[in-house]
Amino acid sequence: xxxxxxxxxxxxxxxxxxxxxxxxxxxxxxxxxxxxxxxxxxxxxxxxxxxxxxxxxxxxxxxxxxxxxxxxxxxxxxxxxxxxxxxxxxxxxxxxxxxxxxxxxxxxxxxxxxxxxxxxxxxxxxxxxxxxxxxxxxxxxxxxxxxxxxxxxxxxxxxxxxxxxxxxxxxxxxxxxxxxxxxxxxxxxxxxxxxxxxxxxxxxxxxxxxxxxx
Length: 214
Fold this sequence. Notes:
Layout: H1 3-16, H2 21-66, E1 107-110, H3 116-125, E2 138-143, E3 158-163, E4 167-168, H4 174-180, E5 194-195, E6 199-204
Antiparallel strand pairs: 1-2, 2-3, 3-6, 4-5
């Protein structure tokens, strides 16, 4: 038996050997299984935050519409427009035709713990959001609508509460598993998370607590 013949037979035996193939197949199956499992966990968390925060934003807009403004500069009453007829009587609807009520413009601000209304709303929605969210991710907007209110009466804007720039972090190594399972090319990664879509709810104000006693 020559050395070359032995080497040839050894090479053929190694070529035909299936030792280790089971382990390779097992690793692929496990990667796919873990990808599905962790995907269910993380995307289930994502769906929870989206659904629950959407409902919380409706409640937040309702609170904002009956509380004092979360922004500074929102007027308390509707004053006469600068170019309005001086004979327009107080009590005239702002949509009576022609300039009647002064438009204070659209007033927008981010939420702040220093503002009682913003702080109350943050307490309401905080538990529905990912841990990294902050009160500054809330934005309040007060927009003039001539169909709401009358000259000399309380300023009744359209109140919008918006949630924006909230990040969502995955708690499982989804992209690494996706690469291992062949679902993503190497180098693609999204384990760092993603941004939740902005959510906003608008509704007419209800005199912004001007009618409350005390």
